[in-house]
Design a protein that fits this description.
CATH topology of the largest domain: Rossmann fold
Strand content: 15-25%
Radius of gyration: 23 Å
Largest sheet: 8 strands, mixed
CATH architecture of the largest domain: 3-Layer(aba) Sandwich
Number of domains: 2
Order of helices and strands: HEHEEHEEHEHEEHEHEHEEEHEHHH
Distance between the termini: 58 Å
Shape: globular
CATH class of the largest domain: Alpha Beta
Length: about 375
């Protein structure tokens, strides 16, 4: 319970009369269109209570996504609009959030509300860096977040999150492991189990069994979101994760170039076959801005992300430029969202992250655990 909530609870507040209640709702509806939900707060049913106490109008807003920072902008907009109502001497806005849980998880991960796969189908498009920054963006908004590094052959999350070499997950019984905490994010990765020089020379069935053990034997605890940093391709690990987890949705990361888009199409088709809805597309390395002259060049082509999103009737969540700061901060283990939270790039990651999790809450996305069969042609 927030401070404002506890404070209001002690006051003798009363509901607004019907006519005044409707007028206040009209003002709220015209004052603020939520940039992530895409509609006004009244239509989104985000206004939970309108009460007054000693001339003070108290507005309780509940959003379906974490809004620790963006809530301040919402509150300022509503306050400015509502203060013109002469019936009230003061306006108090209380912004809270309640993150819906995606149902149907097995017992080992039942305390995780939403599992989101971050995929690329093609390697080298910046999927892992994107996963890290999205996770940190959500955590900065007040969400509890974890990352499962499912790329067994090339795990990169320990480096991106600055986890010291030699750090290993702790275990009391050698059957379950506590995830490593990095910048407030719970992390599990094969990179924490072996040294950087150890190659993972496993065939598909062994890799599938390993990722299942890595996922289900991790003591994730309570999480709002678990982001899975998927390996490239559309192979055994992807199918296995889709079988034993109820994945709320997948996000596909791509560059604009045609050769990357070919693989992206395969990735989207794969998720369709295993019953995982695609929440949207992220176009990475969309352009390069010269640090000397400021000229912007689409070095990998242009509009590839929007074309693929339109083709598959999904959303382009955002486009990110090819920027040296993103790479440098990732290599340093302090991603740009953490290092420079007010940077324009960090704001782009935040907007993408919030659009992504809002899409998880949309009706029709909750699907039963798929049954997959294999046929020898």
């Amino acid at each position: 319970m927030s401070f404002l909530s506890s404070l209001f609870g002690k006051n003798k507040s009363k509901p607004l009369e019907r006519e005044l209640h409707e007028r206040v709702q009209q003002v709220i509806a015209g004052a603020y269109i939520d940039p992530y939900i895409g509609i006004d707060l009244v239509a989104a049913k985000a206004i939970k209570r309108l009460v007054q106490s000693h001339g003070v109008l108290q507005v309780y807003v509940e959003l379906p996504y974490p809004a620790q920072k963006v809530g301040a902008t919402l509150a300022d907009n509503l306050t400015e609009a509502l203060q013109h109502l002469t019936e009230f001497s003061q306006i108090e806005i209380n912004v809270d959030w309640k993150i819906p849980a995606h149902r149907g998880q097995r017992e080992e991960v039942s305390r995780i509300k939403n599992i989101i796969a971050i995929s690329s189908a093609k390697g080298g498009v910046g999927k892992s860096t994107t996963t890290t920054n999205l996770a940190l963006a959500l955590a900065a908004q007040g969400a509890s977040v974890g990352i499962l590094d499912a790329d067994l052959y090339g795990p990169s999350q320990p480096l991106l999150l600055g986890i010291a070499e030699g750090t290993t997950p702790q275990s009391r019984d050698m059957r379950s492991y506590a995830p490593v905490i990095a910048h407030g994010i719970k992390v599990m990765s094969m990179g924490l189990m072996v040294t950087e020089k150890t190659p993972m020379m496993w065939r598909g069935p062994v890799a599938s069994e390993t990722i299942q053990l890595l996922t289900l034997q991790t003591l994730w605890g309570d999480l709002d979101y678990l982001l899975i940093d998927m390996p490239p391709g559309t192979g055994d690990i992807h199918i296995s994760l889709s079988q034993f987890l109820t994945i709320a949705g997948a996000v596909v990361v791509t560059t604009p170039q045609d050769i990357a888009l070919l693989d992206v199409e395969k990735g989207i088709e794969m998720f369709a076959k295993v019953g995982v809805p695609v929440l949207g597309v992220i176009e990475n390395m969309s352009s390069h801005i010269c640090s000397e002259c400021g000229q912007e060049d689409p070095v990998f082509g242009s509009d590839g992300g929007s074309r693929i999103a339109k083709k598959f009737n999904t959303e382009l969540l955002g486009s990110l430029p090819l920027n040296i700061n993103i790479r440098q901060q990732g290599d340093a283990g302090v991603p740009i969202v953490l290092k420079e939270p007010d940077n324009d790039l960090s704001k782009q990651y935040r907007n993408i992250a919030l659009r992504m999790v809002v899409n998880v809450t949309q009706p029709g996305l909750i699907m039963p655990l798929p049954n997959i069969t294999f046929v020898n042609d």
